[in-house]
Amino acid sequence: MKRLLLYIAPLLLLASCSSYKYHTTKIEGTDFSQYRTYGWLPPVDSLSKSYFDNDIAQANIMETANRELEARGLTYSKDNPDLLFRYIAIVNNKNRPIYGGYPFGPWGFWGYNPWMWGPGWGLGWGYGWNRPIGQERYRAGHIIIEAKDRRTNRVIWQARGTGEVRNPEQAINKLPEVVTGVIEQLPLPVTSSR
Questions:
Q1: Of 33, 129, 171, 179, which is least surrounded by CB within 10 A?
Q2: Ranges for the DUF4136 domain (predicted)?
Q3: Nearest to 53, CA basis, from 89, 78, 81, 24
């Protein structure tokens, strides 16, 4: 039983991980604690086929972003805010490799594999036998949020959340989770409960 748990636990951990990836960049040396207020620029009109160009998606993005920014001590201001935020929502087509190879044999799908999570025979992937045999197309959704210093008119921070979009309605419902993950990349600590 313990051995079975050793095999299942890592799989459950991987399954519970977010299917979105987050990336961020900023101007190094920027003191983000100097910013107290924020405002919004109009969203950038991407030339992609966007699932997010509707009132529900825009409300999910803006309401979540405002809540997350205010939890980090920023206050919304229409007049002369310190930071100007804007978002870009994109859905585009991407390609990824399809892997195949020899499913049976000493290093194949069923057989001894020293790179498994433990010794013995069982399900594993063969090193060197699995290789790309083609490409498949999929839709990738991106939510990009950037912050511009109003005084210098320079973008000082940008973060992106990216994930596969299989269903438009589900993608719109996941927007609060994605926007929260993007704003978590902002180098300002949470100062109040959300």
A1: 33
A2: 29-187
A3: 89
Question: Range of 166's domain?
Answer: 19-99+139-183
Region of residue 80 (phi > 0: left; psi between -120 and 50: alpha; otherwise: beta): left
Nearest to 139 by CA among 90, 82, 66: 90
> What pTM, to 2 d.p., does this model score?
0.72
CA-CA distance, 40 to 146, in Å (whole number)? Answer: 10
**Helix, strand, coil proportions of the chain in percent (round to 5)?**
25, 35, 40
Tokens 């799989």 label which residue?
Answer: 11
| Structural domain total, the chain | 1
Distances (CA, A) of 84 to 4, 89, 143, 169: 52, 17, 17, 29
